[in-house]
UniProtKB/TrEMBL annotation:
SMART domains: S_TKc
Record-level Gene Ontology MF annotations: kinase activity
Domain Protein kinase: 24-282
Sites where the protein binds ATP: 51
Superkingdom per UniProt: Bacteria
Lineage: Bacteria, Bacillati, Bacillota, Bacilli, Bacillales
Membrane-spanning residues: 280-300
Protein name: Serine/threonine-protein kinase
Keyword Calcium (UniProt): no
Organism: Paenibacillus hexagrammi
Length: 301
């Protein structure tokens, strides 16, 4: 028996807003989480990510945050495209339409391009968090699955279900990224909460032994930050970032601006591997030079 969202988001089906009347053609289901389901849709030639919320109240809270961020003069500007209701099996379901961002997970990007790219990606992710924090919000549920990395290490955040106004209790989290899980602080919406999750995200993606898979099964009394030190020591990029990671894991960095300055100081002289910095224009220039050389030989031969 199919679920309501499998029926609503079947490839080729149409979703029409009840109030705005806009029609979106479903291409495929992108994923589902604890607070909603997301599909890739098309309207005309434009692609979008359409999210339908399970709970109206929670989804409306996410929409309110996105609406506020979409009006800021930041990279989040105009991120939210449309908000409406659709009727599924006789029931009204709220949905939001956002920019669709193509890319891959940070894990896949580092596997393909090399771990030294963590310095570039980390810098750009901290810039995103700084924009968010300056506008009064905490991301809350920062994890590998909630960010996309595109070419040259550009970063975008996705799934804003955990976004929480500063000063409130964190409303959505994933255990191993949560400082409360590690007995390292409260589940309170402040910048240091996101920075703790940022540090965990880096360690998780750099951990070649997949130790994080066993952490959720660990007894509460055994959850200690010291368990993460082995990952820092064994992995060269993590070892270089140890001064930053220690402070972030102990909530000793108050703001994302401060975090960015510390990060920049640590990685300013780090270079990504030559193979991963090869740009398409270099290949084009090389190909062009070969053609010119061949033409020259032909003319003067």
């Amino acid at each position: 028996m199919s679920t309501w969202f499998e029926d609503a988001f079947r490839p080729g089906s149409e979703i029409q807003g009840k109030w705005n009347g806009r029609v979106y053609l479903v291409e495929r289901l992108l994923g589902s989480g604890s607070n909603g389901v997301v599909a890739l849709v098309r309207r005309g030639q434009m692609k979008y990510a359409l999210k339908a919320g399970y709970e109206t109240v929670d989804h409306q809270s996410e929409i309110n945050s996105l609406h506020a961020l979409s009006r800021t003069n930041t990279s989040f500007r105009n991120f939210l495209i449309d908000v409406d209701d659709m009727v599924v099996q006789g029931k009204e379901v709220s949905f939001s339409v956002m920019r669709y961002i193509e890319g891959m997970t940070i894990s896949d990007f580092l596997h393909k391009q090399g771990q030294d790219w963590i310095y570039v990606i980390g810098s750009k992710l901290l810039k995103k968090l700084t924009e968010l924090h300056k506008n009064g919000y905490i991301f809350g549920d920062l994890k590998i699955e909630n960010m996309i990395v595109s070419r040259y290490g550009d970063v975008d955040l996705i799934d804003f279900g955990g976004v929480t106004p500063k000063g409130r209790a964190i409303k959505q989290l994933t255990e191993v990224y949560d400082r409360g899980f590690w007995k390292a602080g409260e589940r309170y919406a402040e910048e240091s909460y996101d920075l703790f999750s940022f540090a965990i995200l880096l360690l998780k993606v750099l951990d070649r032994k997949n130790r994080f898979a066993s952490f959720p099964k660990m007894l509460p009394q055994n959850r200690e930050i010291e368990l993460l030190h082995a990952i820092m020591k064994e992995n060269p990029p993590a070892a270089r970032l140890a001064p930053f990671l220690h402070k972030a894991l102990n909530s000793q960095i108050a703001t994302s601006e401060e975090a960015y300055q510390l990060w920049t100081g640590l990685v300013s002289n780090k270079k990504v591997s030559p193979k991963s910095t090869t740009m398409p224009w270099l290949k084009i220039c090389f190909a062009a030079s070969v053609c010119i050389f061949a033409a020259t030989l032909y003319i003067y031969w």
